[in-house]
Automatic annotation (TrEMBL):
The chain crosses the membrane at residues 27-44, 64-85, 92-116, 128-147, 154-174, 180-203, 210-228, 268-285, 318-337, 349-372, 393-413. It comes from Micromonospora siamensis. Its main location: membrane. GO terms for molecular function: transmembrane transporter activity. This is Nucleoside ABC transporter membrane protein. InterPro entries: ABC_transp_permease. One of its GO terms (cellular component) is plasma membrane. Coiled coil: none annotated. Keywords: Cell membrane, Membrane, Transmembrane, Transmembrane helix.
Length: 426
């Protein structure tokens, strides 16, 4: 009987010196706070910046003088940055950083809202919250698909293609049958087809998973674009006029100020997205399936030794991820728009960023998706009030937020140890 020695892993620590990550972040936040205090304060007007708690200009509102608000919140952001720069204890890092960033955004909004033309110098918070969730929906579904794959050890760069195929399938079959439910099922299957290809080539044939994901994205763009031109453009009434899911209002909860109208007067995709976050979180961290999934993503050899069917579990989870992403694609064509070529527009890659920003956790991915959704909604709002910021820059805002989050805020994160590594059964 032979034994195999397990090599010891050397753990090294890097002395960051004075300029720790927290202090670097504090320096940047301090600079942003000073910028907000000086620039936003100077550009803001003395008009009241109104943040209404409704969908219109009327009703209850939070009001503050534009100049005062821009300067006050800029000072708060600068103070938060100074606190981090001074070496605040690590346990306070996230809270102080969050306060500083929110203060910076509020300073910016005080400038923009107060400087808006008469009749548009207000921000309807209900619309902002609702729009944030609507625009975050495909990101929520896409990032959950990423969680299911990457917790199992398979890199899912094909989220873009899964969302796109889901949107196309939902529009096509929903239009042909006149049924939103058939469209929803078809969308899930469309996303699963892309995932099945990813699983076969990545797990069975050991193709590089990142390269395969990019190829599948291009395949989805090509196939849906070709069929769009051949079918939908020639007869939109028959092939691209899918019915829409109506909004469902939950009694009592929908009457809660601000949150109620935004969250409890939504369509099935909103409720399903939030439910999936809860279910997948509980599944990953409270069930046997979750334990096996995480073990396969961290150490598949050890999991195999304990009797876990590694390849079978990876196949199952990758296909399940495609089903989830396909439903996310349907949130476009069965709730909001008609299908157009390449309509996802990079949201799959933002969902991948949300996955990383959320540290491969369903709840973290949800919060990250909402952050990016807010950036998207903010760009739409600023365009509607006639902001002096060029429209081209506003269009870049969600992508700039993605870069800032992943490169600047996420810090050191560790993906599952076996993520992207093929498993060859010995």
């Amino acid at each position: 009987m032979s034994t195999t020695a397990v090599p010891e892993v050397a753990v090294t620590t890097v002395d960051e010196g004075f300029w720790t990550r927290a202090r670097k972040t504090g320096a940047v936040l301090l600079a942003l706070g000073l910028l907000a205090t000086g620039l936003f304060g100077a550009l803001a007007t003395g008009e009241q910046a109104r943040f209404t708690l409704s969908e219109t200009e009327g009703g209850a509102a939070l009001e503050i003088n534009g100049t005062v608000g821009a300067i006050l919140f800029g000072i708060i952001a600068a103070a938060a940055g100074a606190a981090l720069l001074a070496g605040l204890p690590k346990r306070w890092f996230t809270l102080v950083l969050g306060v500083g960033l929110v203060a910076f955004v509020l300073s910016f909004l005080c400038w923009q809202v107060s400087a808006a033309p008469e009749g548009r110098n207000f921000m309807p918070l209900v619309n902002i919250v609702r729009g944030t969730f609507v625009l975050a929906l495909p990101l929520i579904f896409g990032s959950l698909a990423g969680v299911l794959c990457e917790r199992s050890g398979v890199v899912n760069v094909a989220i873009e293609g899964q969302l796109l195929m889901g949107a196309f399938s939902g529009a096509l079959f929903g239009s042909i049958t006149g049924s939103v439910w058939v469209g929803l099922v078809a969308a899930a299957i469309g996303g699963a087809v892309i995932s099945l290809l990813l699983a076969v080539f990545a797990i069975r044939y050991l193709v590089d998973q990142v390269v395969m994901g990019i190829v599948l994205n291009l395949l989805a763009v090509g196939v849906t674009g070709f069929l769009y031109e051949r079918l939908m453009q020639t007869d939109a009434q028959k092939y691209n006029s899918a019915p829409r899911f109506s909004n469902w209002e939950i009694p009592l909860l929908s009457d809660i100020p601000l949150i109620g109208p935004a969250l409890f007067r939504g369509n099935i995709f909103l409720y399903l997205g939030l439910l999936l976050v809860l279910v997948i979180h509980i599944g990953l961290f409270r069930t046997r399936w979750g334990l096996r999934t995480r073990s396969v993503g961290e150490h598949p050899t050890a999991a195999d030794t304990l009797g876990v069917k590694v390849l079978r579990l990876r196949y199952r989870n990758v296909i399940m991820a495609g089903l989830v992403a396909g439903v996310g694609g349907a949130s476009y064509t069965l709730a909001l728009y008609s299908f157009t070529k390449n309509m996802i527009g990079g949201k799959g890659f933002i969902a991948l960023a949300a996955l990383i920003f959320g540290r491969w956790s369903p709840t973290g991915a949800l919060l990250a998706a909402l952050f990016f959704g807010f950036a998207d909604q903010l760009a739409t709002y600023l365009g509607a009030i006639g902001s002096s910021i060029p429209s081209q820059f506003l269009a870049m805002l969600p992508y700039l937020a993605t870069i800032l989050a992943v490169a600047g805020l996420v810090g050191r994160v560790r993906a599952p140890a076996a993520d992207g590594k093929p498993y060859i059964k010995g």
